Amino acid sequence: MAFSPITHIRHFDIAVPDFDKQVEFYRNHWGLTVQHDDGDVVYFAAEGSPEQYVTRVRRSTDKRLDLVAFGAADRESVDTLAQDLGAAGVKIVSEPDALQTLGGGYGFRFFDLEGRTIEVSTEVEVRKHRKIEEREAIPVRLSHVVLNSNQPEAMRSWYEKHLGFRLSDTLNHPHAGDLFYFMRCSTQHHSMAIARGPHASLQHASFELRGLDEYMRGSGRIIRAGYRKIWGPGRHAAGDNTFTYFIDPNGNTMEMTTELEMIDEDSWHPHIYDVQEPETSDQWGTGGDMDEFITKEMFNDSDNDHLFVAPPV
């Protein structure tokens, strides 16, 4: 696909068994704002983002990634994408129509190559948002989502072919091959990435803070609250962004970041970074080496039982 109908990432939605603790984590510690709460589903906004919500938590006996949602420019883009996906044999979950979730809009859902539910929408009501002030250590917006896959090469090709994502950079091991594909739908270095793992799952979700000071203050707040930090603070080579990774109450990995690289589409050439070089994972050398323990934490629980099964909301 020469042109991507996708403009940006909107939100990622999860279902969790320990619902109350997840809600407390996002609301009282991570710095998100409850936009709507119906008792079994809570929508969380980022104060600096016009998106109605950047994540949604659903009460469930099962843990799963419910869906990942992306924006499109207009109805024509949504309709054309739905037609093209259907013609290519992609399983459509719901045809383009008025959305019944918070903020409304017009969109549709479908399954990706591995059976995750993906939503593409337009005309979602813009949320009243504000400028995040200096030293205000709360998320400005959702930065990106990373998906684990045991067939990352095929996943990369699928997202390039069907959704128009472009490859920004690759993490490679000389013996194990490609481990990580950073994918973009705009001038932001990546809005999603695909990581090599043993199964389909959410690898991590990342939230952008205002700047370095706010990022460090936010990281420190989560550490002081007693949540487990598995990696960071540091700065990656690919994307040139900072990172601190934490484990949330349901075992998902959540990242605080800032200063993700913006790229020039006309001049950018993807890099291949050798993960054996310490600077690839952390240019600063402050976060510690990426090791087997961290990798296994980010494998997360398998979503295999929930693939090709759309969430109820």
Automatic annotation (TrEMBL):
Which InterPro entries has this protein been placed in? Fosfomycin_Res_Enzymes (IPR051332), Glyas_Bleomycin-R_OHBP_Dase (IPR029068), Glyas_Fos-R_dOase_dom (IPR004360), VOC_core (IPR037523)
**Cross-referenced Pfam families:** Glyoxalase
Q: Which SUPFAM superfamilies match?
A: Glyoxalase/Bleomycin resistance protein/Dihydroxybiphenyl dioxygenase (SSF54593)
Note the Gene3D superfamilies from the entry. Answer: 2,3-Dihydroxybiphenyl 1,2-Dioxygenase, domain 1
VOC domain sequence ranges: 8-123, 141-259
Question: Which PROSITE patterns does the annotation name?
Answer: VOC
Provide the protein name: Oxidoreductase
